[in-house]
Specification:
Length: 494
């Protein structure tokens, strides 16, 4: 029964992902059963595939709607101790959409954590049509139900009652501000007074009045990094003054209290990262797909493909770095190739993406630069990589979840000295930082060269990064940071 379920997960995942997960059905045929060793391998592989495919993390990011999530896998026994006070509280989570993008997935994880703490958790999707048959929405709703959350309609009395009678409302992302009036109707003020607004964005266009109008009225704002918090603190104030026509030196708009809560890695990601056998298998499999040898060095960027994430500048650094490597190689006669994996392509920015592909072609990099479609599951790519590049431009990442995920996989980080990355990466210790913009291209190229040749440096940085994650960026750390924030909002409204 477990096996049947495992293979059905595999098939479902394959339809939606570039990477075919190791297939439980496919592998045994390739394994020699001539002797006892073969059998042991087979058993090891079988138990690995069952654990991988049943691992809830793969489901969080996968569209396996037909699969029941076994509740035991959620490890309900692990109650976050720092959130004990949430036991029995009613919490409504409001998301602007239900999709596989970062914001909604983070809120789903938070919902699951709160549920494990004993809270009654309700979910409202602002933009949802009542009769939707969108498979993503359907499968994610199923997951919410499996995690013990209750789904409320986007509009109507039931939802308004849930909101007004709740102990706490968590409004997710700046964009959700657009839906407040429509969802709450006449109860806006009352509900905002017990709302914690969780913001993950740091771009100019989120300062539209349409979104931020109600910001000063909420009980608190929670933001993923100090850099982003600082930005919102100043920008929003200016924006509101400007929009309300208030001159700078008269009325001061009082902002709600802003709490910075760094994210943490889920238990499931840590399980995958710490499973050496599983990692090795995924690494082999992904590398084989792209004809990357064991001795080759892989630099990965795992971000949606857009100018803000800086894939174009990374490719320029990559060309320069590889040229330096080749020059040294001609002297030293070492044999390996440097590869780049760009995970996250979805043609959402077609002209930008075409430019990138043209650049690759013109520079004759088609065999070493690999574009991978946006994936629901980044774990196999992390397992296949040697270095993660976080090249977000402008103000950088708000936080950059992938950075701490890669550190859990003991990857050194080459990141831009901006935004949340500065709060995660210790320059020179867990990775190296370079400036944003064109100024950073040459330094990143040098860092690519250095890490290509110095495996022991990669390993050392990776291990320090892993230690840093264990020390600061685990789910339980996030819960410890979250506890006082939720308590503050609850006391304020009690
Ligand atoms: C679930 O929690 C128990 C108790 O803390 C632990 O021993 C076990 O390893 C956990 N299992 C998973 C899958 O996380
Ligand atoms: C990647 O996505 C594009 C467009 O969304 C699609 O045409 C293509 O077939 C996908 N590639 C793979 C390997 O799935
Ligand atoms: C990172 O460290 C290098 C080497 O010590 C230094 O040159 C660079 O300025 C540092 N960058 C930042 C952003 O601290």
């Amino acid at each position: 029964m477990r096996h049947l379920r495992a293979s059905s997960v595999v098939q479902l995942s394959c339809e939606n992902e570039v990477i075919n997960k190791p297939s439980y059905q496919g592998y045994p045929s390739r394994i020699s059963l001539k002797n006892g060793i073969g059998l042991v391998c087979l058993l090891l592989l079988a138990s690995y595939f069952v654990s991988v495919t049943l691992n809830p993390m793969y489901k969080m990011r996968g569209l396996d709607s037909a699969v029941q999530e076994p509740l035991s896998q959620l490890n309900a026994s692990v109650k976050p101790p720092s959130l004990n006070f949430m036991d029995g509280k009613n919490v409504v989570l409001v998301s602007h959409e239900l999709s596989l993008s970062g914001g909604p997935l983070l809120l789903m994880e938070l919902g699951s954590i709160l549920r494990r703490s004993g809270a009654h958790v309700f979910w409202v999707t602002g933009n949802k049509k009542e009769t939707t048959s969108d498979p993503t929405v359907v499968s994610l709703e199923k997951k919410l139900l499996n995690h013990g959350l209750q789904i409320m309609p986007a509009r109507g009395m039931r939802t308004v009652t849930a909101l007004t009678s709740s102990d706490l409302v968590i409004l997710n992302t700046a964009v959700a501000g657009k839906w407040i009036d429509a969802i709450l109707k006449g109860e806006v003020k009352k509900v905002l007074a017990k709302t914690l607004w969780w913001i993950h964005e740091m771009r100019g266009h989120y300062f539209s009045m349409e979104y931020v109008r109600h910001l000063p009225e909420v009980a608190g704002v929670m933001i993923d990094s100090h850099a982003t918090a600082e930005y919102w603190r100043t920008r929003t104030r200016d924006r509101l003054r400007f929009a309300l026509g208030v001159s700078l030196d008269t009325t001061r708009i009082i902002m709600p209290k802003i709490h910075v809560v760094h994210l943490g890695n889920s238990q499931q990601l840590m399980l995958a990262a710490e499973d050496a056998v599983g990692r090795a298998l995924m690494r082999q499999r992904v590398r084989r797909m792209f004809e990357i040898r064991d001795t080759d060095v892989v630099f990965s960027m795992i971000n949606s493909v857009s100018r803000g994430k800086g894939q174009d500048l990374f490719l320029r650094s990559f060309v320069e770095g590889v040229n330096m490597v080749n020059k040294i190689n001609m002297v030293q006669q070492t044999v390996f190739t440097v590869h780049a994996l760009l995970v996250g392509s979805d043609w959402a920015a077609p002209s930008y993406e075409s430019t990138l592909r043209r650049f690759v072609k013109e520079n004759d990099l088609e065999r070493t630069v690999h574009f991978v479609n946006k994936s629901l599951d980044v774990v196999p790519y992390l397992a296949a990589s040697d270095v993660l590049v976080q090249n977000a431009q402008g103000r950088g990442e708000c936080f950059g979840r992938i950075t701490i995920e890669a550190m859990a996989f003991q990857l050194p980080i080459l990141g831009t000295a901006a935004g949340g990355t500065l709060e995660i990466v210790v320059n020179g210790s867990t990775g190296r930082l370079h400036p944003v913009g064109k100024e950073g291209v040459h330094l990143l190229a040098q860092n690519i060269r250095d890490l290509t040749f110095d495996k022991s440096l990669r390993v050392k940085m990776g291990m320090r990064g892993y230690a840093r994650v264990k020390q600061k960026f685990m789910e339980h750390h996030m819960c410890e940071r979250l506890g006082p924030v939720l308590q503050t909002v609850l006391t304020q409204t009690a």
